[in-house]
Amino acid sequence: MTTATALAPRVDPDLPARLERSASAVAAGHGMRTADFADWFAERTRAHRFRVERIPLAELDGWSFSPGTGNLTHRSGRFFTVEGLRAAGDEGLGTWEQPIIHQPEIGILGVLAKEFDGVLHFLMQAKMEPGNPGLVQLSPTVQATRSNYTRAHRGAGVRYVEHFTRPGRGRVLVDVLQSEHGAWFHRKSNRNVIVEAAGDVPAHEDFCWLTLGQIGELLRRDAVVNMDSRSVLACAPLPDHEPGALHSDTDVLSWLTTERSRREVRARLVPLAGLAGWERSASAVEHVSGRSFRVVAVRAAAGNREVPGWTQPLVEPAAAGVVAFVLRRFGGVPHLLARARAEGGLADAVELGPTVQHVPDGVVGVDADPPAFLDLVLGAGPERIRYSAVHSEEGGRFLNAVSRHLIVEAGPEEAPEEAPPGHLWVTPGQLTSLAGSGRYVNVQARTLLAAVSSRAAVL
Questions:
Q1: Which of 6, 44, 164, 355 is deepest in the core (most CB within 10 A)?
Q2: CA angle 41, 178, 451 (to 5 degrees)
Q3: Which residues contact 166 (CB under 8 A, 6 or more apart)?
């Protein structure tokens, strides 16, 4: 007798609605009222000894500039290296050289989920990173490079990592590879994963369970929710209530595929020593003009990290940035103006970015000229701003890398239905679908998408 094979559903039909219920739970969650979060966060910040100070490059312990190449490397051969990049591109990108972080290993950005009283909650961590403004921000349950969770630093283990590395520890809700900053990383990807835990998971004192709605409230505050948390939550598949869109999903994907096919960005790693226009001083590797960014060194101490004290290089931008989506409604449906963004460090050269992604005096060849719509988003009155907050980039690699994040509603005379070259109107639902597939939506756009999906932004 033949036994019928049990088949699993291709998609979880209940997950989007469960996430939507979590996004609706704003005032309180399991064991934490949103109004009490600031006190808890301040107490966790005071509970440990944190210190970061700039040091000369020569005082980096275990790091050195390799003879010949000048690349900045760790004696273990692990973690990451700072090397040179030589890049050239079409459509105004030009040719440029720059330092870039090379970290081929794939890290884990993992959020543990659990249902309390019928509502999904997420286990979030008050975590110190040396480059964070204010040092401590709200991080995923696990935020670790492979070197970290395999204990290459010979320090303590990473809490809760077994939920993401051992099969059968829970139910996977989201699991995709996403790029990091293509302007500062060479083809870097992280695993963005949400796992619903099986069984009881006690929260360590530096962790708390929050609903998606509570995290959305915190996303309205400056420099509280870190980049890695924003990236993971942007991948969550919320319900699609959109009755239609200007362009079908197939047309959006075809447009991006066409942009990737026709755009040419040639980039290769080269020695850090001898990069045109860059020089090394006692305190930094920086551009002779003082523009763009610099590679600096810090000494850090944290009482609750896997290693209590260490030194490391960090990338420090020369100025704060602006990241913004322009919003319009077509047929009553909100649409965001996405841009096909080319960067030298992206594995696929081009990803969907926000309308405006600009760092004044940024990487030569990438941000040489102010982008279209910059004046529109910077000059918008409060009645047109649907979201505004200052967020920083990942504090384990970047120092004081902050940008104002905005969603600004525009009229037809400012942002016509026929988008300019390299731009396309997409709905938030279409952007969420692409983010769930990995390496289609860049990290800057994912921050704004997380604000939409968590209802921090009211469209």
A1: 355
A2: 45
A3: none
Give, to the nearest 10 degrees, the angle between helix 212-219 and helix 15-24: 50
Question: Bigger pLDDT: 154 or 114?
Answer: 114
Give yes or no for a contact between 142 and 108, defined as CB atoms under 8 angstroms apart. Answer: yes
Residue pair 399/316 in contact by the 8 Å Cβ criterion: yes
Contact 352, 339 (CB under 8 A): yes
Residue 387 corresponds to which amino acid? Y
Q: How far apart are the first and last CA of the chain?
A: 57
Q: Which of 359, 362, 445, 365 is nearest to 402 (CA)?
A: 359
**Single-letter amino acid, residue 74:** H
Task: Show the tokens assigned to 14.
Answer: 């209940």
19, pLDDT greater than 80:
yes
CA distance linking residue 96 with residue 98, whole number of Å = 7
Q: Are 324 and 339 in contact (CB under 8 A)?
A: no
Is a pLDDT exceeding 60 seen at residue 151? no
pLDDT higher than threshold 90 for residue 92: no
Q: What is the pLDDT of residues 128-139, one digit of tens each?
A: 999 999 999 999
Residue with tokens 């969603």: 407
| Angle separating helix axes 443-453 and 212-219, nearest 10 degrees | 120
Give the pLDDT of residue 363.
61
Mean local confidence (pLDDT), 348-359: 94
